[in-house]
Structure formats: structure tokens, C-alpha cells
Amino acid sequence: MNARMRRVAVAVAAGAMAVSLAACGSAKESKGGSDHASSGKKKGDAITVGLLLPENQTARYEKFDKPIIEKQVADLTNGKGKVVYANAKQDATTQNQQVDTMVTNNVDVLIVDAVDSKAIASSVKKAKDAGIPVIAYDRLAEGPIDAYTSFDNEAVGHTQGKALLKALGGKAKPSAKIVMMNGAITDPNAAFFKKGALAELKGKVDIAKSYDTKEWKPENANANMEGAISALGKKNIVGVYSANDGMAGGIITALKAAGINVPVTGQDAELAGVQRIVTGDQYMSVYKSYPQEAAVAAKMAVALGKGEKLDSIATSKVDSPTTKQVPSVIVPVISLTKDNIKETVIKDGFYTISDICTDKYKSACAKIGLK
Hints:
By secondary structure, the chain is of the alpha/beta class. The protein is built from 13 helices and 13 strands.
């Protein structure tokens, strides 16, 4: 584990659990209902947690989620628990095979961040039938899941939409053309991001072009943006809604090539995204505390893996398309701009000033007081 991850892990141990127990509400939550806690026999600390992450295009999974979950599981089991990891590299069929392998290997509990929330349902049922509890992580997988933790995904879209309108200022009017670059349709979170953003943007600006970006890939966002510029004309675009930082990178490359400088949103507080915010190439990102989310998932996994209930961990309930009243923890989000970099990603140990302000960015950092 590198120095940054150690800093994050320490921050998690100190404060994330308090947030995990607070469980902020989301629009999809409801109260009461059945208990999805594991009904298996109680086990000791020597449990095996299967961790299945969806892809490695987005920096967060390998840099934050995986090492934090591994450390938390170790800490919560006195070093006796272990994490078995697999990454599906954006392939739903591969992920289903990975679940099958972990079921065959008889892991005690699964944490699954689904590539495709519908396609994973049959594999979730296989695990359930084998007596293995399943935690839906970050994305609300279908099938008989036992627990869920994520961020308030509609709130992400609202945050992005409000930020774009603020950046546009007086240019925000019903005739002003923006481009909307949404995430992949296979990701249920993308629909929530879009819904929240549309609630803010509809009627206030003209969404002249809207794309559902295949696999969230920056190169696909880049191609979509080039198409939008060609269709709309470079003088007619006043802003771009981008659902995440990776796509924002591809979008901004296309904008710069066309000589366009307009506000662009993002999400995930990726290092490259933060650096673009510092230079002004990207207006904002949505900061989501992965240490908090990962700490909750690890705590849920250890409890379910040991055959314990989630009553003290998950104080909210969420309905999926297939399962009602799933015990859940929803983590809040923050709009990240050049004005609060110190109070968010630096304070929480995501990055140091030296991580962000490399030689290329030192001058821009100095201009916003980041030094």
C-alpha cells in the first residue's frame, strides 16, 4: 500500500464509520420491512470476502476501493480475514463467471459492483442459493441482494446540474445550447445521475445533444463531443454536462481542438480532473468519499460473513427493481470546485498538494492559493 492509501486508511479508521452509521437518506429509500441479514451460522474472524469490481478505466477502483476494503477487512477481523479480488474489465459475462468461481470456491460473502445491474441477477441468485450473502456496492444490482451501499446518485446529478447553471451565469437561458454526456445505460447509477441533472437543467437551457456513452469510455465521449460540435457549430455550445471526470477529459480534448472554452462538469474527483479544475479547463467534479463507502462495504461484509445482522450498520432501506427493503447506507456527496480543493480531497487524504501541483500545474495552483 502506498503512502496515499495509508493516509486514506487512517482517515477511514478515524472518521468514516460515524458517517456510515448516519446513513443519509435518498429519494429511493423507504422505512421498515423485512430483515435481509445473514441467517447462517456464526463464524469467527477467518472469513473470505469476494470482491468483484466492474472495470479499471476509472482510477478510483484500483487506487481507492480495493485497497481500502482490503485494509478494513483485515482490521475488522484481527488480520484473519482475507479478500479475494477480481476485476471484470467492463465485461458482464466475465463478471458472472467470476461470481460463479467465487461461489465454487465457497467464499463467505460477496461485495459486487455490477458491470450490468440486470445481467448480474442470475449470479446473485446462485450465490444466495449457495448461502453466500451478497452486498451490492456502488451500483444497485438486481437479484436477491442482502445489503447495499452507495452515494445519493440523484443528488449527484442535481449537484452537477446546479453547478453548470452557476458556471453559465447570465448565459443560462432556454435558448442556450448545452451538450449532455451521460454514462453507460448498463450502469443503473447513470440513470439516476441523468434524472437529477435533468431536473435542474430542463427548461433553463436547451439540451441540444444528449448521449448515453458506451462503457463510460473517454474515447467514446470524445467521439460524441466531436459529433456534437459538428452538428451544432462551435459558436453555439455554451456548456457541457459530463457525468464523470474520465469522460470530461475526452470532452475537453475535443473542445480544445475546436477552440471552444466552456464550463464542463464531472464526477469522481480523479487526480486528472482535479488538475483540470485547477487550470480552469474543467469547472467542477463531484467529490464522493470512497473511503466512507468502502469502509461501510467492508463492515457489512464482515458482519454478514460472520453470520451477524446489519441492524447497527444499515439504518436505511432501499428498493431495487427485484428486491424490496434492502438494508442500506447512502453516503453524501459534495460539489468540488477550485474553491474547496483544500477542504475536500486534500483534507481527507485523497491527494497531497504535491500530488496535484506538479511542475505543470504549479503556476495555476499558486493562482488559486494552492501551495
